[in-house]
Each structure stands twice: as structure tokens, then as C-alpha cells.
């Protein structure tokens, strides 16, 4: 298919977050939330565990969904283990991650790049290099408190009302990347798309 993943190639979508109920609805877990929504929509049979990661393989879509369970700062090695096992190169690994420096609800897709201060991306770059695509989901900075409080804090009631629409757009971005490639996904995803809360 033009600009998309070649037929038969396996792709991998890695959602970043922290495991456990304590972190389930925190802003830092935006990547987990999007990957969970993909799993639900695709009707994957269930999550399995390998190399400190939960994963679900959708054979029809030739896609592997991954949620590292080693905590954010150590996300790289579990993702690398699955990528190695399934022979998936970095350019076919899309990482979904929260972004403090984007306004809440803004999405930004890139083919590659730096960590931008994100510890989860730093860990992935340490094992894959910088050449993997990533979808950043803006969580916005707070005028009160520090960055740690912001990322590890739960979504506000107002943010929760806007979250389904944000997740819908993120899921659509993943699907476009998977079927049409990174250029098409960037063209559709990037831009001013901050939800009205």
C-alpha cells in the first residue's frame, strides 16, 4: 500500500504509562489509555505478559499492542524484548506518550526525534535510537505545583469530559499510521486541535 506498512509486516504500538490502579487515570498514563482503547475496539482476546510487558497480538491487523510494566523510566527494555522477539524494526514501532509541553488535548505526530525531557522516551531511545515514530498527547502544564505533580496527578473532572474525544483522535492517528504511513498520519493529526473544555 502506498506510503503505509507493506502487507504482511508486523507493526507495534507502545503505550507508555505506569502499572497499577494507583496510576490508572493519571495524565502520565495517556499512552496506556489509548492502547487500551485500541485493544477494546479491535476486540483482541486478552493481554499476555512477557519481558515485563503486557502485549496483545492482533493477527488480522498485523499489529502488536504493548504496555511496558516496568514503570515509565524503564520502558525501553521490555519494549525492546518484544520488538526483538517479533523482529520489528524501530521505524515500525509507534510510541504513544503524554506531553507536558503541549496544551491539553493537542496531538503531535513525529517520525523521529529527541526525548524532549520525557523519561519514558529517554529509555526507549536508549534501546532503539531516535528513529521510531511517536504520537504525543498534550496534557499541558499547570500554573500551580511542579511537573511531577502534574503528570502523576489524576485528570480533572473537566479534562475527563474532554478525554474521550482526545482518545478518539489519537486512535484515528494510530490507524492512519498503520494503514497509510507516517506522512499521512502527520498530515491528519498535527495542527491546532485543542478540545473546548
Automatic annotation (TrEMBL):
- Location(s) in or outside the cell: Cytoplasm
Residue ranges crossing the lipid bilayer per the database entry: none
Domain of life of the organism encoding this protein:
Bacteria
A GO cellular component entry from the record: cytoplasm
| Gene3D superfamilies per record | Peptidyl-tRNA hydrolase
InterPro entries reported in the protein's UniProt record? Pept_tRNA_hydro (IPR001328), Pept_tRNA_hydro_CS (IPR018171), Pept_tRNA_hydro_sf (IPR036416)
Kindly list the positions annotated as binding tRNA.
23, 71, 73, 119
Please give the biological process terms from Gene Ontology that the record holds: protein quality control for misfolded or incompletely synthesized proteins; rescue of stalled ribosome
Question: Nucleotide-binding as a keyword?
Answer: no
The principal localisation class reads: cytoplasm
Which Pfam families would you find in this protein's record? Pept_tRNA_hydro
Please indicate if the UniProt record lists tRNA-binding as a keyword: yes
- Which top EC class applies here? hydrolase
- Give one GO term, molecular function aspect: tRNA binding
Q: What is the catalytic activity of this protein?
A: an N-acyl-L-alpha-aminoacyl-tRNA + H2O = an N-acyl-L-amino acid + a tRNA + H(+)
Site feature Discriminates between blocked and unblocked aminoacyl-tRNA: at which residues?
18
Per the UniProt record, which EC number(s) apply here? 3.1.1.29
Active site (record annotation): 28
Site (Stabilizes the basic form of H active site to accept a proton) at: 98
NCBIfam families registered for this protein in UniProt: pth
State its role: Hydrolyzes ribosome-free peptidyl-tRNAs (with 1 or more amino acids incorporated), which drop off the ribosome during protein synthesis, or as a result of ribosome stalling. Catalyzes the release of premature peptidyl moieties from peptidyl-tRNA molecules trapped in stalled 50S ribosomal subunits, and thus maintains levels of free tRNAs and 50S ribosomes.
Q: Which family does it belong to?
A: Belongs to the PTH family.
Q: How does it assemble?
A: Monomer.
From the Swiss-Prot or TrEMBL record, give the protein name: Peptidyl-tRNA hydrolase
From which source organism is this entry? Vulcanimicrobium alpinum
What taxonomic classification does the UniProt entry list for its organism? Bacteria, Bacillati, Vulcanimicrobiota, Vulcanimicrobiia, Vulcanimicrobiales
What gene is behind this protein? pth
